[in-house]
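This part of the workshop introduces the protein records we will be handling. As an example, a complete record with its sequence and its structure tokens follows.
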Amino acid sequence: MDHSIGAVARLAGVSVKTVRHYSDLGLLASRRTTAGHRRYGDDAVVRLRLIRTLRALGLDLPTIRAVLHDERTLAEVAGTHAEALAIQIRTLRRQHALLTVLAHHPHNPEDLELMHDLTEQSEQDRRALIADFLSTTLGHDAEPAVRQNLTPVLPSDADPAQLEAWLELAALVTQEDFRTSVRRLVAGYRVLAGDDPLRADPELRAQLIDLRRTADPRWHRYNELVAVVNGWAPPSRVAG
């Protein structure tokens, strides 16, 4: 069936101006009457609805043109666009989390740039920061399980509480006096544990508990923050 430009626009739910624009771009096939008016077939309505849907999903016209002209498959385009959207969503969630932190806990304007930079760190940079802290405090020979339990891993969809915990952690691990206090704690543990740190000795356990209780309060805070970032249950006061 032949349709006028107005009829096609009504059937597809778009404006006449939009139909004319898409026709000029070569996205819609039409023929001209002797009077010079455009006429469209039923396939134009189907194609217009497809274009409208793809535009609503965020695809640009050059990409849509490639799909309509069979230069790219719809599945390929959808997959690429879905990946791009996933990145945008993660970015928006991170921005939302940071803004929520700022809204509930006002900071000095000078701190904002640092907070933003820490928020936008790559996973590799975040891991490197924590790895450096653990290596300089626990030593390179620390048990892998111990390092893992002390390593925060900020998820890509971190909520405001996790992001705030990470920001506090990132600031904490750069404090040299904190690093020094952790090194003292580790040294004390090694003196008490001796050659067999895994032995089941009630006296040793009591001494270790006392050592942890007298540790820098920031060490307990570090463990609490790691639990928040990783989504774990809060540690006991003498844990870690």
In short: Residues 49 and 163 are 42 Å apart (CA to CA). The radius of gyration is 30 Å. The mean pLDDT is 88. The chain has twelve helices and three strands.
